[in-house]
Predict the structure.
Amino acid sequence: MDTVGSEVATVMAVFDAGPLGLVFAATKPERTAGLILANTAARFLWAADYRFGTPREVADQLIDQITERWGTEELVWIAVPSRAADARYRRWHARLQRSMASPGAVQAYLRALFDMDARTVLGSIHVPTLVLHRKELALVSPTSSVRPRLRVASATSGGVSGSKPMTSSRGGAWSGLRAG
């Protein structure tokens, strides 16, 4: 933000960026105008005090499956199932994966992601917060996605139909949203 001269911003944290978005909003409230959480959670793994998370064994299997399929068209069926029937999109997505990181780097990143836990900062977030979740998205359960709303006093939440990731400003999930 400093590099581009932005003093305050609304932060959007999608999937893996969720825990870091939560920490930013909690520790930099003077720089956070609002927070949008989409298809994410404060914690991804199950714990005795967090029964909404994914069990470690299932997370390890998912990480192994993603690592084995990284850079192939096959991963689109997991990552973007709504576009999986489009051969051209699958080829593009496979090239995108290969250009982003090696399978080993992705594996290390996913292991670190599953070990993150931002629940301790939830009560410190006092900026307007919108929690969104795609109802048919398999990577993050709707229950764990909505959990941050329950501990952030200024949060509202809503489910959005479909399974496409919410990363585009063109149509889709964003077409019905308006600035307040």
Observations:
- Residues 50-115 form one domain.
- The chain has six helices and four strands.
